Amino acid sequence: MVNLGGFIVQLKVNGVSRQVASEWQNENLLDVLREHFGLVGSRYSCGIGQCGACVVHVDGAPLSSCLTPVGDVADKDILTIEGLDSPNGDLHPLQQAWMDEDVPQCGYCQSGQIMQALALLQTNPTPTDEDIDVAMSANICRCGTYERIRKAIKSAATVMQEVG
Ligand code: FES
């Protein structure tokens, strides 16, 4: 990669080292993921961090990628929906549960929903309905799939408990 400004941002995205050239450092992480790395699972929606469609994990914590300059996540581990399945292609229990429960309607919000659900299950492996509603409250679904999301999270929680 040509370093035009003498500065490169290093990232690790889904376990792969990536470099961001100096001229991109003030672009938001979402645009860099989508436009430069081709990882289009994370979606742009409200642009003000209030809908959850762009949620990715940064060093294990959920973050609105539409609000985050890529320079602010230098040297950090980024996990997107594309990095959730295992190297052999097996779906993550959350992805499988989303399919089993037929959660998506239009699908636009769902990658953000799954990444937020992952953050919940990493801190609370056996959430109640109320825990789920609180944890997922910043993720908006215009199609109203909330009941199926709740079911899928509980189903994935059970599988994740079983596999440890
Ligand atoms: Fe359509 Fe959530 S499935 S916005």
Ions, cofactors and other ligands present here are: FE2/S2 (inorganic) cluster
Which structural class matches the secondary elements?
alpha+beta
Number of strands: 5
Distance between the ends: 41 Å
N-to-C order of helices and strands: EEHEEEHHHH
Number of helices: 5
Main sheet: strands, sense, barrel: 5 strands, mixed
Alpha carbon gyration radius: 16 Å
Walkthrough of the structure:
The protein is of the alpha+beta class. The chain has 5 helices and 5 strands; from the N terminus they run ββαβββαααα. It has helices at 29-36, 93-100, 110-123, 129-135, 146-163, and strands at residues 8-13, 16-21, 55-58, 61-64, 77-79. A 5-stranded mixed beta sheet has the order 2-1-5-3-4, covered by helices on one side. The chain binds FE2/S2 (inorganic) cluster. FE2/S2 (inorganic) cluster is lined by residues 104-110, 141-143, 145.
Write the layout of secondary structure elements.
Blueprint: E1 8-13, E2 16-21, H1 29-36, E3 55-58, E4 61-64, E5 77-79, H2 93-100, H3 110-123, H4 129-135, H5 146-163
Parallel strand pairs: 1-5
Antiparallel strand pairs: 1-2, 3-4, 3-5
Residues 104-110, 141-143, 145 line the site of FE2/S2 (inorganic) cluster.
